[in-house]
Specification:
The chain is an alpha+beta fold. The protein has two domains: about 10-95, Double Stranded RNA Binding Domain (2-Layer Sandwich), CATH 3.30.160; about 100-135, no CATH class. It contains four helices and four strands; from the N terminus they run E-E-E-H-E-H-H-H. Helix 1 (about 40-60) crosses helix 2. The chain is elongated and about 70 Å long.
């Protein structure tokens, strides 16, 4: 088990090519979880997301994240093995939804007009930022 859960790691993933359902399957043996995707790129992204979510969930429950294997996992002929890099700390930061306090400076007339209209500057700023940086 990982003692330092903030390290960057690389986990092996076994990829099964599409069958009748036209989906790639990804199995992560170190955490015994699976995911799927319509393309190889999508299934690799989904596997990275799966490992990251699983890891930060374990951290939140005060559990250790399983150490990644360092050898190629067993797999069947026709399956691919890929190595997926994860950074649990970066994933947590990128997906944190907790509100943080930020001071902003605006012209006095804008503050006055916003107050008269009953606008929440925090809500207006959040809406504007969502348009510029997107949402989760």
């Amino acid at each position: 088990m990982k003692k330092n859960n903030d390290d960057k790691c690389v986990y092996p993933v076994v990829i099964t090519p599409p069958g009748e359902d036209n989906y790639f399957l990804a199995y992560v043996p170190d955490i015994d979880r699976m995911t799927q995707g319509e393309t190889l790129a999508e299934v690799l992204e989904m596997a990275q997301d799966l490992i990251s979510i699983h890891g930060i969930t374990l951290q939140d429950d005060n559990q250790s994240i399983p150490e990644p294997s360092t050898v190629e996992p067993p797999h069947k002929q026709g399956e691919l093995v890929s190595w997926i890099p994860v950074d649990f700390s970066a994933y947590r930061r990128a997906n944190e939804t907790k509100a943080v306090h930020k001071d902003v400076t605006i012209p006095a007339y804008m503050a006055y007009r916003a107050r008269k209209l009953g606008l929440s500057l925090s809500a207006v700023l959040q809406e504007a930022l969502k348009e510029h940086v997107g949402t989760l």
